[in-house]
Design brief:
Length: about 220
């Protein structure tokens, strides 16, 4: 059973996403603990909030720490950021029983009619992927400190995500990670799907922003 920490009862809601003009694009952001998911969400919100209506759902097992961080940083109006406490393995809440996340997304859509909803998973492993009943696209984040062999090892997150982000490339020399090798290995396992190398906290994330913008339909 998954649990919301917010006070309001969001109620039920249809657990599918019929394609229709104007529906909010839902992008899941997953990856291991400490890879920079929340920092990426914050950076995306800061860049996109002036041009798009954005909302965020965060996942933590026992706390609302990621949502609290985003609110403290004022990346969006506080009520556009909703926390889900999963009480279970993070991948369960984004893939196996998405009810709590889907209810949170649908509540945000009803209240704000956003162009884009970012759903951040709790920290998980290389097998963590989102159900496409919850999101339309998914980003998987890894970092150089996790080892430069991670892209070569593949796994559903690395190989299957619509966009792979290799983060903290500025730390590569400090941890002995060969980022060129990581990029080459990612290209081999990802069958043509894009990979972005970046350092979210220290450099612009232009490539990721451009990819996200391309997922949001242009309306007349």
């Amino acid at each position: 059973m998954l649990h919301r920490l917010d006070d309001q009862d969001l109620g039920g809601g249809a657990h599918d996403h019929p394609e229709k003009p104007g529906r909010a694009v839902r992008i899941g952001i997953g990856g291991p603990v400490g890879c920079g998911k929340t920092a990426l969400v914050a950076a995306l919100c800061r860049v996109l909030r002036d041009d798009l209506s954005v909302a965020v759902v965060t996942n933590d097992i026992y706390t609302t720490e990621d949502a609290d961080f985003l609110r403290r940083e004022a990346v969006l109006d506080a009520d556009r950021i909703v926390a889900v406490r999963t009480g279970c393995c993070p991948h369960t809440a984004i893939r196996d029983d998405v009810t709590a996340n889907l209810d949170a997304v649908e509540d945000l859509v009803e209240r704000f009619d956003p162009d884009l909803v970012l759903v951040e998973s709790g920290g998980d492993n290389l097998t963590a992927t989102f159900s496409y009943g919850l999101v339309d696209r998914q980003i998987f984040v890894i970092d150089t400190a996790g080892g430069d062999d991670v892209p070569r090892k593949g796994g559903p997150g690395v190989a299957g995500a619509d966009l792979l982000v290799i983060n903290k490339v500025d730390l590569g020399p400090l941890v002995g990670a060969d980022t060129s090798r990581m990029a080459a290995d990612a290209a081999r396992v990802r069958d043509g799907k894009p990979t972005a190398l970046t350092s979210v906290r220290t450099a612009p994330i232009t490539e990721v922003v451009d990819w996200v913008r391309a997922q949001v339909p242009v309306t007349a």
